Amino acid sequence: MSKRDWLRKIENEMLDLVYPPGLYCISCGKIIDDSRTYRLCNDCMKSMNWITDRHCGKCGRPLADTDPGNLCFGCSQREAAGRMFSFDKGYACAGYGSCEQAVIFALKYGSRADIGDTLGEILYDRMLAEYEADELDGMYDIVMPVPVHSEKKGIRGFNQADLIGKGFAERAGLHYDPNVLIRRRKTLPMKGLGPEERRENICGAFSIRQRKLSMVEGARILLIDDIFTTGATIDEIAGILKDPWNDDEDRMHNGAARVDFLAFAGGADIIVPA
Ligand SMILES: [Zn+2]
Ligand SMILES: [Zn+2]
Fold first, then answer.
1. Which of 37, 144, 230, 271 is deepest in the core (most CB within 10 A)?
2. How many Å lie between the centroid of ligand 2 and the Cα of residue 63?
3. What residue spans of the chain are helical by DSSP H?
4. Where in the sequence of the chain do the CATH 3.40.50 domains occur?
5. pLDDT at position 128 over 90
């Protein structure tokens, strides 16, 4: 080892003391100090498309200046076509831009499972912007994540929505149950599919676990996911929760009283239902 290498090594060690390893901006990966809110560097904090302004009263997406009412273009088209989403109300923390994408990619593909809890904190603060803490506490009977297929979970080691949901529910003091829904079959990646293809892709992909059916009856449910794009997945799940059909038993169960969802990022309004 040369003297220069040795010096560099000592310098790096000292840097680690000031910045403990693991303290990197969850979006760009830059070293940050541990006082940063949501573990985002200053630049990423500013670049995030935080939804603090007008947003769709149905799906929670940010509204464009050209959207006249309190619904986004997609939701007003759905309303006009009589095909409104089956969930009651959606909330998103940020519009889906490059910073938000980097955070989600780091969590899903970058072995940064720790980001899940930080997103849970962001989701909690997002709800506190709408409701008092004790109001939120009494709003839902069950919080649950959108499930991933067991094979995918096996590769990644976790379901990102589960990590986010746990972090949120813990802070909100709400009952959390990741085992209500089952993903019955694998689906194609939604990316690159049109709205109609997305609906077909997801149809029949989820069901409610047999022993959880009674728990769902009359419950007020909050679904958690990392990102909301066309809404096909959330719509499908909300429909099942509200009107469950159990094929193992020859009778109908009553569904959930209310299904809302909360996502970290809301994607661009790209649905134009026929
Ligand atoms: Zn950053
Ligand atoms: Zn909308």
1. 144
2. 8
3. 3-18, 42-47, 73-80, 98-109, 115-128, 133-137, 150-156, 160-172, 195-202, 213-216, 232-242
4. 48-266
5. yes
Average pLDDT of 94-102? 94
Taking only Cα atoms into account, the Rg of the chain, rounded to an integer number of angstroms, comes to 21
- pLDDT, tens digit, 9 for 90 and up, residues 179-205: 999 988 777 776 677 777 777 777 778
Alpha carbon 218 to its chain's center: 23
Q: How far is the CA of 33 from the centre of ligand 1 (A)?
A: 12
Ligand nearest to the CA of 85: 2
Q: For residue 207, how far is its CA from the centre of ligand 2 (angstroms)?
A: 25
Q: What is the pLDDT of residue 6?
A: 79
- The ligand minimizing its distance to the Cα of 62 is 2
DSSP strand pairing (220-228 vs 206-208):
unpaired
Q: Give the single-character DSSP code of 138.
A: T
CATH class of 48-266: alpha beta
The confidence band for 273, taking pLDDT boundaries of 50, 70 and 90, is very low
pLDDT at 102 over 90: yes
- The answer on pLDDT for 246 being more than 70 is no
With bands split at pLDDT 50, 70 and 90, how would you rate the model's confidence at 249? low
Ligand 1 center to 28 CA (angstroms): 4
State how far the Cα of 181 lies from the Cα of 101, in Å rounded to an integer.
26
pLDDT higher than threshold 70 for residue 247: no
DSSP string covering 161-227, please?
Answer: HHHHHHHHHHHHT--B-TTSEEE-S----STT--HHHHHHHHTT-EEE-GGGHHHHTT-EEEEEEEE
- CA 165, CA 272: separation in Å to the nearest integer? 30
Whose atoms come closest to the Cα of 103: which ligand? 1
